[in-house]
Fold these 2 entries.
Entry 1:
Amino acid sequence: MVDLVAWDNAGDRLGLSWSDGRCDTVHALWLRDNSPSAEARHANGQKLFEITDLDDTTVVESVSNGVGSLRIRFAPDGHEADFDLGWLRSHAAPPPASTLRLWGAELADTMPVHGFDTVMADAGARHAWLIDMRDLGFTLLTGVPSEPGTLIDVAESFGFVRETNYGRFFEVRSDPEPINLANTGMGLSCHTDNPYRDPVPGLQLLHCLVGENDGGDSVVVDGFKAATLLRDEDGTSFDLLTRYAVPFRFASADTELCARARLITLDDRGEIAEVRFNNRSISTFDLPADVMPAFYRAYRRFAEVLQRPELEVMFKAGPGDLFMVDNQRVLHGRKTVGGSGRRHLQGCYADKDSMLSTLRVLERQMS
Ligand code: FE2
């Protein structure tokens, strides 16, 4: 148990010293903005005031000890609130380090396999499954009943299905007149799905119902690992792919979808936040002429990294297997489907934020 051992009120900021030696500085306006008092927040946690209601010159007027809390009085508005020490301790610290685990072909030795029956019945097993989804961006569920549409039950066990022009879910099998190359026996190079949508689907589920064919092995590649390698090996190419957006497009008789996006998107801290890569639906580049040669070089470099065998995890999805990927990170593909045997999968998309919400609620219930 870490205690607050001292504070130092400088008016516009407050220094906090903890029993483990950690020292934090929090600002008066930040404290006032986060007041937990009933005047400032509804019982549901939502704020009851506008930022423009707060005075720019807000300072901490006085500080006193409460029971497991710090009572703070502000000037000039005279507002008072009790700040929970646990809340101060967790929110004054820098954001926690990322929990992402990057992987390559070695993941095949420790596949993130989870059982359908247990994740559906047991909160602890469901938690372990969703932790793997969050940190690895890929999991394999086994023992999923081979009933058509069961993948919807799986998606709804943690969140919401993202319906598209392909329907609530779609079939992946050989089709004599395919509108999409997924419905042929051709191999498919690794890609993220539906880059022509904005927003792009966060998760993809693929459930194998029939797998009598030869070949057709599934492949997944960690796009964040590939982007990290590109950044290390060729920083100029990495920078170009994070700076310029390109168009993606899909058209059929009744659909025309277009989105502009970067192949690699960074977050506000400069960390890799999204990879979008799809050789089939990337459209005609409309970059400035003087950028085009270097961009093509960067695009090719990234593709070469993504194709490295040491990044590929290959597995044979059989009946009852359902694999799920974070579609903003992990690319998926398949080798050529051979022979005359039947192969039938069903796919659907789901929202990633609803999965992460379910994970946080599970953590709340388990703590
Ligand atoms: Fe796909």
Note: Residues 4-92 form a domain with the NE0471 N-terminal domain-like fold (CATH 3.30.2020.30).
Entry 2:
Amino acid sequence: MHESLFIALEGGDAAGTTTHCHLLKGFLESKGFKVYLTQEPSSNKIGILVREFLKNKDIPPTTDALLFAADRDLHYRNEIKKKLDEGYIVISDRYIESSIVYQSVQSDNISVDWVKEINKFVGLPDITIILDIDPKIALARKETEELEKFEVSSFLNKVRNLYLTRAKDENYYIISSDDIIEIVQDKIQTLVINKLKNLS
Ligand code: TYD
């Protein structure tokens, strides 16, 4: 009835990508689709290392960028591509746009083009959805006291602006995540179902 589809959910910290990925998976499964949910940093060894580095302010942004790219390379080859080939809808909680945005806003040495270059061997999503959130709301939603290095208001503002610019340039979908979960999820589901209808 349908071909495989690769969906990436993106957005600033606490935009709710994880919650919405899970809800979307449940919704699509209830419609009879085979769904594979994954996330980045991934669960492979590089992904685990990257997650450790998120707490460490001494890791240079260039190292972060290279490791995120290595993690993605392995993640795409060993997991995502295989599942797409088996006819699954793959939902990734963050993907290449996270690197383009988060790594390039951190250093003048890191250009969008360089991040694209080091990520050029992976397949791109069919749909990229940016969950847009006001950083003030995002930080208020955070319960933990120990913030990761990327969770500072000025940084999140830069992240938000670049996501919005990228969305315009690349025709990504933008959905406001300032609303309640049900409304946001409903918009995501409508978008994905329409895309699936166009494929069949
Ligand atoms: P995570 O705990 O998964 O946060 P969230 O639930 O908000 O996604 O941490 C992922 C963090 O890593 C997040 O701050 C974004 C950052 N990140 C990058 O900087 N580059 C990347 O390529 C990816 C995938 C994530």
Note: The first strand starts at residue 5 and ends at 11.
